[in-house]
Amino acid sequence: MHSESQYYIMFGPDICGFGNNRLQVILSHRGKYHENNKTLKCRINKDTHLYTLIIRPNATYEVKIDNEKVTTGGLEDDWDFLPPRKIKDPYARKPRKWDERLQIEDPEDKKPEDWEDSEFIPDPEAKKPDDWNEAMDGVWEGPLIPNVKYKGQWKPRIIDNPNYQGEWIHPEIDNPKYKPDPTICHYYNISVLGLDLWQVKSGSIFDNFLLTNDEEFAEEVGNKTWGLRKDVEQQWRELYEEMEKKKEAEEAKKKREKQRARQEDIWGLDEEDEDNEEEDEEEPDGKPQQEDGADRAFLGKKEARFDQKDEL
């Protein structure tokens, strides 16, 4: 088997980063792969989960997670194996006078005569300068000031449309290209089970794969394997997480105490003590080597003298 090998069914969790969390159910039909039209989500946490896909002879299916039903339906309804049974009538057209407006403006509502919808008005106290020459300066326009009576833009009130007919629905007809296929998902000679893994984090474990035609037996096997371990696994995980939290809290506390001691030590005595401790830790490894080297040199001299005496 390799990455280009053909398959009948691809089923399992597809989790990639934070954006992709999907339970894939891909089925093969007439040489093409079809994904489920529904968006099925995985269970994302640190516990082990049991995934089950049931394909029945009556062209229905069911997906379960941890032996609990997640979704069910028909194969033709949730996969695009075949052309749709119904299509929109190509000759049907919405009537021109069909009114889909739920609410309309009241045609009998009129703007009040004293309604001021001008935000700015000409200053009534402004006067044209005496030396204003319209031939050279153009038509004089006085400055604008805010209108104290301004009420905003007037709009008629909204009422329910008495002629509302609802949303027009395009009529459908039988699709002449649709032909039922009783062989959908009838697979024969299934002899290989493979894993398609794209993994960037270690620690994922896959086990207890089961392919059977007995739904009750599959549920029983799940309860006797995953069902027996899930509670114990959850307890161990919670205990481990609690121990990790305590460890992190202790390390953070020591770090804070160390920082506080440094802030209070204005003379830098603690730093000198730390440096001395580091030197003391280094000396046992260094001094004996120097002493051993001196002793060897001294012994070498003695041996040389003895040799000289022996020669004499």
Automatic annotation (TrEMBL):
Record's subcellular location: Endoplasmic reticulum
Residue stretches of biased makeup (Basic and acidic residues): 98-113, 247-265, 285-312
SUPFAM superfamilies: Concanavalin A-like lectins/glucanases (SSF49899), P-domain of calnexin/calreticulin (SSF63887)
Region (Disordered) location: 98-128, 247-312
Gene3D superfamilies referenced in this protein's UniProt entry, alphabetically: 2.60.120.200, Calreticulin/calnexin, P domain (2.10.250.10)
Membrane-spanning residues: none
InterPro entries on file: Calret/calnex (IPR001580), Calret/calnex_CS (IPR018124), Calreticulin/calnexin_P_dom_sf (IPR009033), ConA-like_dom_sf (IPR013320)
Pfam families reported for this sequence: Calreticulin (PF00262)
Superkingdom, natural source: Eukaryota
Keywords: Chaperone, Endoplasmic reticulum
Segments of skewed composition (Acidic residues): 267-284
Keyword Endoplasmic reticulum: yes
Entry similarity comment: Belongs to the calreticulin family.
UniProt name for this protein: Calreticulin isoform X2
